[in-house]
């Protein structure tokens, strides 16, 4: 636990410094329209400050889930989400801070979740016997300071995490390339995509968490070689994910316009129409996305993360190529179709 925490914090500091230093190249890579360039820069300057909070939350949330406690991370995430909405209204509507207010609301809510879950773990583990606590003992802390990292432990952590890190990095790099293409179609398409992606991400977040829970379930049973329980759990996980995805698809496709109006003023009809188009194309295929997250979770659980990396690299390459090809005759809708095709090809 101590080795992983120090490693994650070190990587976080490096990335945090890197994104601030590379602010202008990032904006150039994203092909941000000139009319929204300054607003984008203001948002990123503030939102990057939340990387530490996100790292804290994700580390301790994963730790608690590994111990079988998925309730507490969900509670802190729910509190953070509700607080984010409240602070958005306060900072943007009340204080008129605009873009900076939206970014500040996100960062503050992230720190509430990150610090809150950190304190929960520290308090809940304090007072336990040395053999029953996850908290590093003083002798262990002094040993690390005196002797440095244990290469065996560090190698194991890096081996387990490197492929997943590579997968996520490749995935998000592909997303950024598509984002740059979207931005090239102007501020209207960019605004529609930004709002629609928020709705899209929120819609399939539960099935993504199904995948995380399923991964933990498989890993625990794989460790004790209870393969029968894995088979039974797999059938139930896929059934739950598919049924839930169908329901969400129906809701998103039916109420796409109303959902867009949560983020966009009703008078901005062009933005809403573009966002509705995205949601109805993308929202029709949540079943595939749900199954995909379960497959990722399965390969991680049985220590074959390289399969997920291979699938991600191939599928994202197809996604970017298709997006650039289809956007020529179809314009923005071609990008939405490419996103759907990439997800279904990856699942196949």
Automatic annotation (TrEMBL):
One of its GO terms (cellular component) is plasma membrane. It comes from the Bacteria. InterPro entries: MATE_fam, MATE_MdtK. The chain crosses the membrane at residues 7-30, 42-67, 74-97, 103-123, 237-263, 283-302. Keywords: Membrane, Transmembrane, Transmembrane helix, Transport. One of its GO terms (molecular function) is antiporter activity. It comes from Roseburia faecis. This is Probable multidrug resistance protein NorM. Belongs to the multi antimicrobial extrusion (MATE) (TC 2.A.66.1) family. Multidrug efflux pump.
């Amino acid at each position: 636990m101590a080795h992983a925490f120090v490693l994650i914090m070190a990587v976080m500091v490096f990335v945090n410094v890197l994104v601030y230093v590379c602010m202008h190249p990032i904006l150039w890579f994203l092909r941000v329209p000139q009319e929204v360039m300054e607003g984008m820069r203001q948002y990123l300057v503030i939102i990057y400050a939340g990387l530490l909070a996100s790292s804290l939350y994700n580390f301790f949330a994963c730790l608690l889930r590994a111990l079988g406690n998925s309730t507490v991370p969900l509670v802190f995430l729910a509190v953070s989400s509700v607080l984010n909405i409240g602070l958005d209204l306060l900072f943007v509507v009340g204080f008129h801070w605009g873009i900076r207010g939206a970014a500040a609301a996100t960062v503050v809510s992230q720190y509430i979740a990150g610090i809150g879950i950190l304190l929960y773990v520290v308090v809940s583990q304090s007072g336990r016997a040395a053999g029953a606590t996850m908290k590093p003992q003083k002798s262990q802390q002094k040993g690390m300071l005196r002797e440095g990292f244990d290469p065996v432990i560090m190698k194991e952590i890096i081996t387990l995490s490197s492929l997943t890190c590579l997968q996520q990095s490749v995935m998000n790099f592909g997303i950024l390339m598509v984002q740059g293409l979207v931005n090239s179609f102007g501020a209207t398409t960019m605004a529609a995509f930004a709002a629609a992606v928020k709705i899209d991400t929120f819609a399939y977040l539960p099935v993504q968490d199904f995948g995380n829970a399923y991964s933990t379930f498989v890993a625990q049973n794989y460790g004790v070689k209870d393969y029968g329980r894995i088979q039974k759990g797999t059938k139930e996980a896929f059934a739950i994910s598919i049924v839930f995805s169908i329901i969400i698809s129906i809701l998103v496709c039916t109420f796409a316009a109303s959902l867009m109006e949560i983020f966009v003023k009703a008078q901005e009809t062009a933005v809403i129409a573009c966002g509705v188009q995205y949601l109805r194309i993308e929202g029709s295929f949540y079943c595939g996305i749900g199954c995909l997250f379960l497959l990722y979770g399965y390969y991680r659980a049985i220590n074959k993360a390289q399969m997920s990396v291979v699938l991600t690299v191939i599928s994202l390459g197809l996604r970017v190529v298709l997006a650039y090809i289809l956007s020529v005759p179809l314009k923005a809708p071609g990008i939405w179709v490419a996103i759907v095709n990439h997800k279904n090809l990856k699942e196949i």
